[in-house]
Amino acid sequence: MKRFYGTELPNPLMLGTAQYPSPAILERTFRESGAGVATVSLRREGAGGAGQTFWAMIRDLGVQVLPNTAGCHTVKEAVTTAHMAREVFGTPWIKLEVIGHTDSLQPDVFQLVEAARILTGEGFQVFPYTTEDLVVGERLLAAGCEVLMPWGAPIGSGRGLSNEYALRAMRAEFPDVPLVVDAGIGLPSHAAHAMELGYDAVLLNTAVARAGDPVAMARAMALAVEAGQLAHRADPIEPRDMATPSTPVIGKAFLS
Amino acid sequence: MKIVLNGETTEIRAETLSDLLAECEFPGRVATAVNEEFVPAPLRNGHRLKDGDRVEVLAPMQGG
Question: Do A45 and B6 lie within an 8 Å CB cutoff?
């Protein structure tokens, strides 16, 4: 498995920590899925210090924490959020999101590249949430990113891989770069699909957290990414239009 | 003085950012910004607040 800024992950499943029915279910979901990365966020601290309880639980899980800049719409907002996240979470990892479109939550790739350039220059290890655009991918790498995270479909939509052709092209264009499908996964088959294309990991949240049984769904996702990865390494056959018999024709009895 | 703390107008006695965190009993692991600029923890002691400042105190939270 490829390393993410020098870190080898225990498996290719990255999970978000939002929207679970309860903290106890969130904790069980991580423990039973074996996910090695947890995305987290920063929000205003309320009375009673709810954030501290949450942080204590995540810390006890022993997973790699990936803070995000969710909800940021400008370079300045994302860069400031990244600075605050680095101090709070004590990691140079940052999932860089700069949202450009309200309904689709599509990244603003122009501001994304600029924010990535600033943050990598300051020692951050940037995981950019981007589109499947190859030129943007090139620019992000030139800006110092060593990982790319194209969307599968809009965040929370559960639509799976909207543009398989482009994701396949991205994999071919950047064979040595760790690539993560981030967002849009709804089912284990979607996650397996991403891994079958040769992606290195899948990042998802809603599909697990909003499932009727998040713990079971996370286990299904973990099995799916493992299956997809194994399948990719096993060199799958190419699809074809016509049937070919799998049972040998030679030696068949003449019985008509 | 009056400041805007996490979006709420708040009357405070504290004169510095670190005193504000103590006065409002914010727990340990938070990050701070004043008027949209990040103020790292080591600089909170020396950061004097003034009337009308907009202070953000952020903590770890669930995220995707």
Answer: yes
Contact A44 B41 (CB under 8 A): no
- Ordered by start, the domain boundaries in chain B are 2-58
Q: How confident is the model at residue A47 (pLDDT cuts 50, 70, 90)?
A: low
Write the residue in A16, A40, A156 that is nearest to B60 by C-beta. Answer: A40
CB distance from B7 to chain A under 8 Å? yes
Asked about A252 being catalytic, the answer comes back as no
C-alpha distance from A84 to closest chain B C-alpha (Å): 5
Complex prediction ipTM: 0.94
Say whether B35 sits in a helix, a strand or coil.
coil
Interval B9-46: pLDDT, tens: 999 999 999 999 999 988 878 999 999 999 999 999 99
Mean pLDDT of chain A: 95
Test B64 with A19 for CB contact under 8 angstroms.
yes
Which CATH superfamily groups domain B2-58? Beta-grasp domain (3.10.20.30)
- Let me know: does A231 contact A195? Beta carbons within 8 Å: yes
| Nearest residue of A to residue B5, measured between CA atoms | A44
Query: What is this structure's pTM?
Result: 0.94
CA distances from A77 to A15, A51, A112, A156, A217 (A): 24, 21, 11, 23, 34
Which residue of chain A has the CA closest to B42? A87
pLDDT given at position B27: 80
